[in-house]
């Protein structure tokens, strides 16, 4: 159950009876839920991790008429982590996070509420909720979006309360967990100045944060291309291997 009593649908994926850790997997906007990431989820599970992947509010099999706002992703993840930790049928293992786009913003921002998290991978993410509104707004109404942003911030403050101020940089600053920031140089959904470049400029001296920039994998990093197109297959396999290596070193 999430913050307003809406039931979220989630699945625990595993390939063996033993596991090194539990990865809580947060999906991006627009894909409908976690099913768009089954190639990555399968790869992580096949390499010794349990993966708890859920559909956020208003997505796929979860309840809710819609997302309602970007901070809802942080709220749902907060509740999902607490569920995994309290559910008796799940083993007591290190909690790891993986997020893409909206999910990347969520896995970083949620760290202020869950200091026990032991490692985070954030792919194609942005810093704060109004960033993605600004990015999309500039495409539609150019600089006119800046007149609307104060109203959006007020709406979020009323709708989401303390979660409205959640942002990736503050979450990272509150955590001691190692973090991997990943983005492709040709990302057309989240420009690098809102993502990789921003995080690098702020966190490049932080020994706990590592950066991976790839090329020609777009915003989705080839998740949907894995084992379909040979070029994407090789790049994605290398990237997925780096995910596994990062988690193994972190626990």
Question: Could you characterize the architecture of this molecule?
Answer:
With 251 residues, the protein is of the alpha/beta class. It has one domain (10-128, 167-250): Rossmann fold. Helix content is 38%, strand content 15%. The protein is built from eight helices and seven strands, in the order ββαβαβαβαααβαβα. The chain has helices at 38-46, 72-86, 102-109, 129-141, 145-160, 168-173, 196-203, 230-250, and strands at residues 10-13, 22-26, 50-54, 95-100, 119-123, 179-184, 209-214. A seven-stranded mixed beta sheet has the order 1-3-2-4-5-6-7, with helices on both faces. β2 (22-26), α1 and β3 (50-54) form a beta-alpha-beta unit. α4 runs antiparallel to α5. The two termini are 29 Å apart. The mean pLDDT is 94.
CATH superfamily, by name, is: Alpha/Beta hydrolase fold, catalytic domain
Query: Biggest sheet: strands side by side, in what order?
Result: 1-3-2-4-5-6-7
The major sheet is characterized as: 7 strands, mixed
Portion of residues in beta strands equals 5-15%
Number of strands: 7
What is the approximate shape? globular
Q: For the terminal residues, how far apart are their CA atoms? A: 29 Å
What is the count of helical runs?
8
How confident overall, as mean pLDDT?
94
CATH topology: Rossmann fold
Poorly predicted regions are none
* CATH class category label: Alpha Beta
> How many independent structural domains?
1
Second CATH tier, the architecture: 3-Layer(aba) Sandwich
Organism: Pseudobutyrivibrio xylanivorans
Domain Serine aminopeptidase S33: 18-128
InterPro entries: AB_hydrolase_fold, Hydrolase_4, MAG_DAG_Lipase
Protein name: Lysophospholipase
